[in-house]
Amino acid sequence: MKVIDGGITAAKGFEAAGVEAGIKYQGRKDMALIYSRKPCRAAGVFTSNVVKAAPVLWDKEVVAHSPYAQAVVINAGIANACTGKQGYECCSKTAQAAAEHLQIPADSVLVASTGVIGMQLPQDKLNAGVKKLVEAKADTIEAGQIAAEAIMTTDTVFKQAAVTFEIGGKTVTLGGMCKGSGMIHPNMCTMLCFLTSDIAISKELMQEALSENVVDTFNMVSIDGDTSTNDTLVVLANGMAENPEITSKNEDYDKFVEALNYINTTLAKKMAGDGEGATALFETKVINAATKEDARRLSKSVICSSLTKAAIFGHDANCGRILCALGYSGVDFDPEKIELRLENKDKSILIYKDGVMTDYDEEEASQILASEEVRALVDMKMGTAQACAWGCDLTYDYVKINADYRS
Amino acid sequence: MKVIDGGITAAKGFEAAGVEAGIKYQGRKDMALIYSRKPCRAAGVFTSNVVKAAPVLWDKEVVAHSPYAQAVVINAGIANACTGKQGYECCSKTAQAAAEHLQIPADSVLVASTGVIGMQLPQDKLNAGVKKLVEAKADTIEAGQIAAEAIMTTDTVFKQAAVTFEIGGKTVTLGGMCKGSGMIHPNMCTMLCFLTSDIAISKELMQEALSENVVDTFNMVSIDGDTSTNDTLVVLANGMAENPEITSKNEDYDKFVEALNYINTTLAKKMAGDGEGATALFETKVINAATKEDARRLSKSVICSSLTKAAIFGHDANCGRILCALGYSGVDFDPEKIELRLENKDKSILIYKDGVMTDYDEEEASQILASEEVRALVDMKMGTAQACAWGCDLTYDYVKINADYRS
Question: Are A281 and A392 in contact (CB under 8 A)?
Fold first, then answer.
């Protein structure tokens, strides 16, 4: 596997665009298009929130029942959630508009929205945006990046990644982009994430690989504990790499899963590190837990703790809060066995041993917490399972962004 | 039932004190004592956190196995959590010191701590503090208030309440004090809360009443989602009201439960309204849910949502976030039936009807959100059950307090 530049246009046959449609934001790109020259097999995972945005309902239909998918139309600014029948009709009309311009069936067009809940989307602006997107689409790396920028809301950086790998002598490419900064606590997947590949793989296996992989990648991210109404993760595969089609869980399938895991982990960490107002990526790795599920719950409980997140922002090694968060995770363990380390790229210091605080150097700990990537390494000494979760610190800017967001 | 002034010294035979012991804070009172002239029956509920502070382990023993309890020694500043054997021995030594000065058995002394996790308590300062407390104790309203002040950490106001009611021609009094401002998401009870009464009631019934009542009072409060290692709620009853002892669930029992519910609700709301950095008490009332448990989960999910809390701080009626929080609560419902109102003492406006945003007046909504007590009223239209939960807004000051707390 080789990491390469680019994102959604890295794989063969994929085009993208980003344009200014004036949906809600002014003076910036706010609509994006992904298009594949060949029809794609599609797999997707969506929010588990009972309140599902209209595009989520639309996309679930397309992924489950359409013979294939060939395009995705995305807007930023308005989420099209809690919008009733009018919201769903908007999805249908937007897909129809894209279908006409692209000369493809409307039921092969996915739609996605992110932004404020409750407001209706302006259909005329969407339609005009779709027309501009189709005119602007291109298969360049630049076009992919423009699309990744157009779907941002409170994100401060665009997020993309791509890799190539070999299957049956053919080079296969998998790339992706995502956005997400607030209202991030995916329960099925991230807020909006789109992966494209030229791989030939059966729809069932692609869905299985995706559903399994999100559990340890996007589902291990939390910025604020709020599971969005719009979480969407879709993979499109057009088969243009001409590899022998993957139809069973063989070595080739494992290669695909490895690439998928790399892209998802990379995008998940980028999302966590760019959490609203964040100054640091905060990773918690739990090792030697009794079960994998225990390790997941323990690590996620720590990165979700407001008190721990605020302590990281303050560069204060108040690590009792980490032990506290482990304790209320719902997992049973022996508090008197726990070992806790704080780490960055260069250093690792022991803060708790056998559940009791060590005589560590406060200044050294504070230096670690001032890093861009901070890690808590927790040894439960209960078994052999491990898991990683990713979040960020809690800052004044998080409050500022979310007290002001709509206005 | 009649609301009266005072707190833990309101009931007959109870004395209290607060003194400066220099445990961690300087220049303020940081230790408190509750003492009953007669031995008490005790009931208690404690944190469900796997990481339990030493005083929680000590108090659970006393409540479960001691024939009676007669005093409580409390310190603020250091939590005595994650302190291993030394921490537990500290509880034992502190109880012994109190026992000597008060001439009561050591196993009738409860201890409680609140503050930073990980640090060991200075035993000499505790012992000196205990001596001063015993010398200073008094049965006045003022003494109760000084104790309520001494147990504060980041609280901005002391919290107490008291009522009287009649049983068998005798006036019975129930009073209490609590503290709690951060790390508040009780799963069994609040951080530290002490109730005192001169009622005569069997230990079993008192425990049953307490365990049932916390579910709809303290357990419905959240300030930051962090369930403390130290949560403790204890009731002491010395029987000095000389009412006919309550030994069955009769009318008298119902009167006790009514008083208990009033005191617990009052203290729970005071705690929520005084959340770290909070500018508003945020109540969410869910009505017409399918089951009581659904109503509890739905209302608590809303008051825990960081995005909703930040929107309240910004006086921005971004109520899609409330629908979103209902949606990820884990409760199933029909999003297209929901009705949502924002209310304060004077006004009530409809924001969502049948799951879709109404054409409400933004300025009016913003005015409601600027109140000291803000209420979201959610009609699920799924059944007849209801519940209330209490939290607060998320502010710059919450971040400031918790980024700085230890230093």
Answer: yes
Q: Could you report the per-residue pLDDT of A173-229, keeping only the tens digit for each?
A: 999 999 986 555 654 334 799 999 999 999 999 999 999 999 899 888 876 566 778
Section B190-214 average pLDDT: 92
The percentage of chain A sitting over the pLDDT mark of 90, rounded to a whole number, equals 78
Which of B215, B393, B240 minimizes the C-alpha distance to B318? B393
What ipTM was estimated for this complex? 0.81
| Helices B203-216 & B251-273 angle (0-180, nearest 10) | 40
What is the C-alpha separation between B60 and B63, in angstroms, rounded? Answer: 5
Distance CA A3, CA B382 (A): 51
Residue B373 has pLDDT above 60, yes or no: yes
Alpha-helical segments (H) within B31-177: 54-65, 84-102, 123-136, 141-150
**Angle formed by the axes of helices B320-327 and B292-304, to 10°?**
130
Q: What are phi and psi of B72, to 5 degrees?
A: -130, 130
- What is the least distance, in Å, from the CA of B203 to any CA of chain A? 29
Rounded to whole angstroms, how far apart are CA atoms B142 and B135? 15
CB contact under 8 A, A316 and B403: yes
Supply the mean pLDDT for chain A: 92
Helices A292-304, A320-327: crossing angle, 10 deg rounding: 130
B153 is catalytic: no
CA of A75 to nearest chain B CA: how many angstroms apart?
Answer: 18
Q: Do B320 and A407 touch (CB under 8 A)?
A: no
Q: Which of A321, A366, A397 should be substituted to probe chain B, the one whose Cβ sees the most B Cβ atoms within 10 Å?
A: A321
Contact A251, A167 (CB under 8 A): no
